């Protein structure tokens, strides 16, 4: 349908047809020009004319007649919505990964503490120091908390580590297994 100036108005014959698709009376060359126009970030006519090796006046006539400005605007809105949907999906996947990784880090830290307790009981040196275990648990809890969407709680995590009470013999071994933090090393 054309308006009083002969421009095609965005009344589409098929309701499933999108405004950025070829209009019923739009020539193939005009539509090719529109595809170039809608793909430009700044939606300018001169680059379209240059790419098609035709006059800017001719491209201007097509742009007016086929309402390129509005159609390109609708195209941009459509693509922005797609980008937003993709971002929402990506963020959900990221949160899921954070939760899984945080829980894994906590599990590794828990096993490290169990290893520490066993080695401590038999007097062996540790492969994973208690402060490393605690740091891993804390980091894992923070990652999990962030993944669950609660960044305010990430830095306020309270840890409860249940290690069986140490015997006197284990207490004697404890300082030898942990580097002296005051030694300046």
What this model shows, in words?
With 185 residues, the protein is mainly alpha-helical. The chain folds into 2 domains: 1-66, no CATH class; 89-177. Helix content is 63%, strand content 0%. The chain is built from 7 helices and no strands. The protein has helices spanning 28-39, 45-52, 56-65, 68-122, 130-147, 151-154, 168-177. The longest helix is centred in the middle third of the chain and has 55 residues, at 68-122. The protein is rod-shaped and about 95 Å long.
Tally the structural domains: 2
* Topology order in helix (H) and strand (E) letters: HHHHHHH
Q: What best-fitting shape do the alpha-carbon axes yield?
A: rod-shaped
Distance between the termini: 83 Å
The percentage helix is 55-70%
Low-confidence stretches: 158-163, 176-181
Number of extended strands: 0
Number of helical regions: 7
Note the beta-strand portion.
under 5%
Q: Would you tell me the structural class of the helices and strands?
A: mainly alpha
Largest sheet: none
Q: Return Rg in Å.
A: 33 Å
Task: Summarize model confidence as the mean pLDDT.
Answer: 79
Could you list some keywords that capture this structure?
mainly alpha, 2 domains, rod-shaped
List strands and helices in order, with pairings.
Elements: H1 28-39, H2 45-52, H3 56-65, H4 68-122, H5 130-147, H6 151-154, H7 168-177
Helix pairs in contact: 1-2, 1-4, 2-3, 4-5
């Amino acid at each position: 349908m054309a308006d009083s100036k002969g421009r095609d108005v965005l009344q589409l014959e098929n309701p499933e047809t999108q405004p950025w698709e070829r209009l019923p009376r739009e020539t193939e060359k005009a539509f090719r020009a529109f595809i170039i126009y809608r793909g430009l970030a700044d939606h300018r006519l001169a680059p379209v004319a240059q790419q098609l090796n035709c006059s800017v006046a001719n491209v201007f006539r097509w742009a007016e007649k086929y309402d390129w400005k509005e159609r390109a605007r609708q195209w941009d809105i459509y693509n922005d919505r797609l980008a937003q949907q993709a971002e929402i999906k990506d963020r959900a996947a990221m949160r899921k990964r954070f939760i899984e990784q945080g829980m894994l880090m906590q599990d590794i830290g828990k096993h490290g503490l169990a290893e520490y307790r066993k080695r401590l009981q038999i007097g062996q040196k540790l492969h994973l120091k208690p402060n490393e275990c605690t740091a891993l648990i804390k980091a894992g809890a923070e990652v999990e908390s962030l993944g669950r969407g609660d960044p305010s709680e990430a830095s306020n995590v309270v840890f409860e580590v249940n290690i069986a009470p140490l015997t006197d013999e284990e207490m004697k071994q404890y300082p030898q297994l942990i580097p002296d933090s005051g030694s300046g090393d």
